[in-house]
Amino acid sequence: MKVLDWYNHQGHQYEFFKLNYDFTLLGIGEVKPSWNEKTRPKHKNVREVSIDEIVDDAFDVVMYRTGGRKKWIESYVKKGAKAVAVVQTTTPPDIPKYVKHVVWNSIVTMNKYKNYFKHAKHFYIPHGFDPNEFLNKNLDRNGGLLTVANVFKPRGNLLGYSDWVKVDKAVGCKLVGHGNKDISSDMKEAESFEELLGEYNKNSIYLNTTIESAMPRSRGEAMMCGMALITTNNYDISRYVSHKKNAFLCNNHKDMIKYATLLKKDKDLCLQMGLHAREAAIKYFNIKEYLERWNDVFIKL
């Protein structure tokens, strides 16, 4: 099967391209994209092109994503391609009637908005991670907090930046991600996928302060790597973790500080919470089920 996709979210697409199809990847603005192989390896079944290279081609499937050009999506649909929309935001974009299949990464968002698009079939597929890739390396962790976020401060209302600042001031929290020099000049960028995995294994507690992010990818990655989790209780997360069992669910900075202080003092509790978080991630965010669900979407086109 030949699938045309748009360079949109490298972390998600790294997992998505593990499907056994031939993917053609266009950059935003119809230019040839530049896959950043430092942060994720590029799969051999993916070719990067500009629109000039494929203007006369036909595809079996064309993905409808934020940033994709409707002009070309419609053109390939007219040639016989089936359009599949992907919604990874808390509010969906307008989805035209020629898109008959919509995939959501949040069941809360899907249930809220799917009736706006009665012309389509709807599928819920949360993140998928390989537990043999996102490893808990059983290292001697440092007891510290970690947050992974790109361009954190400008996206403050989305990612709960103000709460993060208060937690950082109270107990300290390492921030990894690009575009954060406006917070501090010593903010770290992971230079490779291996370095990111190292941060998940070196630190002990993952702090997720997101407010309007349906299924934060880094939260699931951290869980898979065995980090104890402190997270806002928004959207789907309570389907997968339980308060004080495999995560601390809290929607204000005071509770975040309370549980961070507890975990920093009690290393055994922190270790156990991390192991339980990994168990939940393996159960619910396993790459095997993720790929099975996506294959089901393509089979039903």
Describe the structure.
- The structure is a single chain.
- This protein has helices at residues 10-16, 51-54, 70-78, 107-113, 156-159, 161-171, 193-202, 217-224, 253-265, 267-284, 287-299, and strands spanning 2-6, 22-26, 46-49, 61-64, 82-87, 99-104, 121-124, 145-148, 174-176, 205-208, 228-231, 248-249.
- The protein is α/β, with parallel strands linked by helices and 301 residues long.
- It folds into two domains: 2-127 and 287-299, Rossmann fold (3-Layer(aba) Sandwich), CATH 3.40.50.2000; 145-284, Rossmann fold, CATH 3.40.50.2000.
- Helix 6 runs parallel beside helix 9 and helix 8 (217-224) crosses helix 10 (267-284).
- The longest helix is centred in the last third of the chain and has 18 residues, at 267-284.
- The N and C termini lie close together (12 Å).
